Amino acid sequence: MKLKYIGLLTLGVALAALYLFINPSEVDFLPKCPLYGTTGIYCPGCGSQRATHQLLNLNIIGILEQNVLFLAGLLIFGYHLIITGLNALLQKKMYNYLYHPYTPRIIIVVIIIFWILRNIPSYPFNILAPK
């Protein structure tokens, strides 16, 4: 079991190093979005590889230019880690709102609205499309 976690950690560090030093918009060997490649429609995740590169290079504006939801997802993940960590560390039972029954529905609605808006080719919606 411990070997599995070491393998996952090694893979994560290797991927982080890859995205730290290699800009996905400048190379052809990293995977491209199949939806955009076949239809020209941006999916909610389009720009996430480039946003990861920007994150690892500490460029917050670059993250927002690629995918606004990427940063929102990071903030939600950070919230989850903080609440879980505080509960474990302090032996508390602080409520994690990510476990509320309506949270998944709200997240899905936000993702669908973002998906629709980022594909409208006029200002201000075209700002949501990856650069």
Concise account of the structure shown:
This protein is mostly helical.
Keywords, separated by commas or semicolons:
131 residues, 0% strand, mainly alpha
Account of the 3D structure:
This protein has 131 residues and is an all-alpha fold. The chain is built from 6 helices and no strands. It has helices at 2-21, 34-39, 48-56, 60-66, 68-90, 103-117. The termini are far apart. The model has no long low-confidence stretch (mean pLDDT 92).
Task: Summarize the helices and strands and which ones pair or pack.
Blueprint: H1 2-21, H2 34-39, H3 48-56, H4 60-66, H5 68-90, H6 103-117
Helix pairs in contact: 1-3, 3-4, 4-5
Low-confidence stretches: none
Number of helices: 6
Order of helices and strands: HHHHHH
Please provide the count of β strands.
0
State the end-to-end CA separation: 41 Å
> What helical percentage do the residues reach?
55-70%
Overall mean pLDDT: 92
Biggest sheet descriptor: none
Strand content: under 5%
- The tally of structural domains comes to 1
Structural class label? mainly alpha
Shape: globular
Whole-number radius of gyration? 17 Å
